[in-house]
Protein arginine methyltransferase NDUFAF7
Amino acid sequence: MDSPAINQIFRQLFAPARGCLRRHAQAAQNGFQQNLSHTRRGYATRRRTDYMGDGQSNWQQRLDHFPRDVSKQIREYPRLTAKELARRSQRPTRVKMFTRDFIDDSLYNPNYGYFPRNATIFNLAEPFDFNSIEDGAKFQKLVDQSYIEFEDDLDAIQQDDLRQLWHTPTELFRPYYGEAVARWLVANYKASLYPYHDLVIYEIGAGNGTLMCNILDHIRETDMDVYHRTKFRIIEISQSLAEMQNTSLRHSRYFTDHLEHIQIINKSIFDWDTHVPEPSFFLALEVIDNFAHDTLRYDPYTEQPLQGSVLIDEEGRFYEYYEPNLDDLVSRFLRLRRAASRHQPPRTPISRPFYPPWLRKVRHSLPFAPNLTVPEYLPTRLLQFFDILTTHFPHHRLLISDFTKLATPIPGLNAPIAQTRYKRENVMVTTPYIHQGYFDIFFPTDFELMEDIYRAVTGKLTRVCSHADFLGSWADIESTRLKSGENVLLGGDMGGWYANVGVMITA
């Protein structure tokens, strides 16, 4: 965390002109170290004084360097939601919010959020000719070189040391990845809906719009009867990405034909309020990892869960704290998990088999031991997404793909990666409570738990498989095979990428 490169990043992020931290020279010079001391997780030292006689918690998390007591601010500051903050053009101070609202605001606030501000997705001028590439190592070099050339072209227009750039399988394996999804869509459509219904497709997290174009191109080239009945609708929260998707569409050789089949709706899926009675297919590919999560920590003795919040003081510093009163969304998620999870008891920081109660109590009785367990990150926003599908898209079929595991320095169960990019290098930090809008925050997905919750909410049957299994069934494998026999489109033992990605499909 203390490398010169990271210090440079945070000196830029927390300079006085940003209006976030102290407005004097010392804060500008030491912004990274100062902010870090207020965002690391720290702990009180003993348990016995943590509870008042009425059973309520007066526990106040102690940060590493024992900053000032903020109990008064916790009582007095208003609690805001991400939706309320969306009307603000400046990052908030003197407020508190649940973890999910802080993350949602950091990523999606229309004025300073990460995605509205940083909508740069790597794309290739021309697709790779996989059959002519020697092996996986050569493919990696070609990807690296393509990244350099892509960013050189951007820098020629405008230099940006803080440019956020990422890639997706849709872009790397274009058009074959999109064609695989198209084959799955057409096969399932013909098996149960054709010719009585149109092929209606919704996509969220559509990025550059490449997947949409590849799907429509393939359907037009292979099945005109289905193409004439295809409707593709993108639900896009970012105005800049919506514009980019329109631009991508113009690059398709079937641009004029596609116009009759496409609608780009610039709004959040969480603001959706229109009933869609017809059968539809819903695509969410590498998007739920950026859905906001709530945090819980547990009392190691009573096993009581406490819900996490973050307080932002008058100088823009962050204080993480936990309270025993759970809000309705978290309470509902826990009830659903207890009822639906195939693992009983569900996996939590206090139920893991290698951490029995007696060992947990011994550990937390030691001097200076933490008075709560490590955090657990709950996918509560994902639950709300399933509610929207059930309410407004009752006849949907869902295709989700996302990361099953991530290597992160942030402690906790289901902990996210929080990272930014500086001078073309990725930089990870050890907390999700960081300067809003400059960091991507993304989570692994527990596919077993997601499947259990989805089935409980929607009543639909599902199938979970690996990224490689799905693409092995639907992709043009020969066109993505390298000279060495490796297939970079497939994960696992085939020498491919995205081996840590899973897929869930509505049956």
Notes: The radius of gyration is 24 Å. The chain is about 35% helix and 15% strand. Residues 38-118+291-442 form one domain. Confidence is low (pLDDT under 50) at residues 14-66.
